[in-house]
Amino acid sequence: xxxxVAQHVRxxxxxxxxxxxxxxxxxxxxxxxxxxxxxATAMPTIVGDLGGFRLFSWVFAAYLLAMAVTIPIYGRxxxxxxxxxxxxxxxxxxxxxxxxxxxxxxxxxxVGFRALQGFGGGAIQPIASTIVGDIYTPAxxxxxxxxxxxxxxxxxxxxxxxxxxxxxxxxxxxVFWLNLPIGxxxxxxxxxxxxxxxxxxxxxxDYLGGVLLVIGIGALMLxxxxxxxxGAGGIAALVVLGAAxxxxxxxxxxxxxxxxxxxxxxxxxxxxxxxxxxFGASATMMAVxxxxxxxxxxxxxxxxxxxxxxxxxxxxxxxxASFAAGRLMIRTSFxxxxxxxxxxxxxxxxxxxxxxxDSGNLWPVxxxxxxxxxxxxxxxxxxxxxxxxxxxxxxxxxxxxxxFMRMLGQSVGAALLGxxxxxxxxxxxxxxxxxxNKLLDPALRQSLGAGLVARLGDAVGWASHRAFLVAVLVAxxxxxxxxxxxxxxxxxxxxxx
Length: 497
Prior knowledge:
With 497 residues, the chain is mainly α.
């Protein structure tokens, strides 16, 4: 092995108690992992309690968009000020938003607090993954990513089951507060076990880029999700505002010294393909996280326990698929593992498209499980591929670019699928109004009467199938993107760019 390659594969940071640092990273990853499964399980009940069915997708989209915008900023800050202190600040903001979510008394309040939660959450998983990238070699990362992904399996068992129990026997607000002690433990472990020496340098943080991105994407998402209630003038104004902000963002990012979106990094084939495919896979996954619970509880008439079972299946298969992907990519290539994930993504979306009110509770579980396999193979491959093809001083921003595209994909996916459902329900049953909120609450559902329940269920089911069709199309495009990976690139041959 020549000196350049040896330097490339050597860990950037030597840590005496590396296993304890990895444990801290696993605990940190558990917070957003369990949050996603437990909130998805509780969401129908929350809508039934707070109302605002037309805003339900914003509970996911606001959180994910805030995370997407802050991930590149936190990644840049972590490269400048060090991993630990940026992690501490972000986790503190996340915990504040988490605590406030439980006190929400309206859907608008919940959406606002979820956005605050997301502004802090952008630091957690990306910096934890960056720390792992610092202390392990590329070949080791392929295996360690399996351990990190196992956290999603644990959260899949704990989150949905606990979420279903809490919403049925305690109160939905408690599902948010569970993360508070976990955050304290994660901060303490990094503070004690991760040594860090920081080299000071000149820097500029791209805050304006973050503002332009929020305005651009947020305006377009608002026009999409609320199109039913907005007039033509309002929609046109939001579209113009969003397009103008994104155009300014693109022009500005090409001139700024340290851009939030490092376009030169995107010129590398592996980085570009990994980020595009990560966006598509994450957007498709929202068919499970944001849409499937509504279908199971509103159309199929099943309870929170069935929702938790289906959502949890995604994380369980994600965990096992990540272990398999780590071993497969070492023996074959990034291209092979990414293509396996893409094929599973298409298959899972097709299963969801075939759902019917009388399908039984195992059919949605099958679709969710296939999408979990796709995420395990895909996301593990995308992250390891990027970390293997960038230098240490680029690893924070490179890792953050992948996390950014995942969060952006999830936020756009939630907004897009939510918009399709809202428009479909309005088109199928214009007089539905707030009755859909009661449809999702098992206690209030009985007060609607069999006839109205049937009409509402038909409208939500018809609209959901349109959204599932969109998910199939996005999944197919994602699979096509994975074909662009270099054929022989792998963790043990990370020389291609």
